[in-house]
């Protein structure tokens, strides 16, 4: 159980580290996007000063987007796969750990019940032996009838009290078992809620990666005819090459 707990904690730590790396990459992507926007703005200003037609400027900008836009979709998908890879063992280890703990608790409870039953059986057996001896004495010694009757009543009372005590112990143990099961159910519910939120975040990351991939593909398609437009204008092409 300790080894499983340790492995679960290691997997959890790795998942958190990968989540932090993913956030850093997203921040880096935002910074690069700002730089790219500034580059496009400067490029448009330069081309306008050179009296380049607006439609050619748009094509050049699309070409810049195609070349400069970081391909974050693959990186995001890779990081998300890593997070899922480390999160799944974490979930499996916790499930296995809970099962082992429950089995160990059940074994301990059975052992406690067995010891209590054995103890009660020994007490009852001794009382039965004593009662039998007193009954034999009553047969042979009529003068001790009152004393024997009193002792017999006391023994029966003790026997009744022992049985009641044993029953009460069983009731208390059952109540404790019920409480443990309720606590375990609450913990399991909380764990399932945390895993559900993690799955939601992972799905959002996948959706964002798909959106970025679609934007990149759209930019590539729009830049498909760039060479046919740029080549007839040698001077402009030279300036574009320097900028790129």
UniProtKB/TrEMBL annotation:
Residue ranges constituting the LAMB1/2/3/4 helical domain according to the UniProt record: 2-115
Coiled-coil portions? 8-42, 168-222
Which domain of life does the UniProt lineage start with?
Answer: Eukaryota
Q: Where is the signal peptide?
A: none
Read off the InterPro entries from this record. LAMB1-4_helical
What are the alphabetically sorted keywords of the record?
A: Coiled coil
Any idea what this protein is called? Laminin subunit beta-4
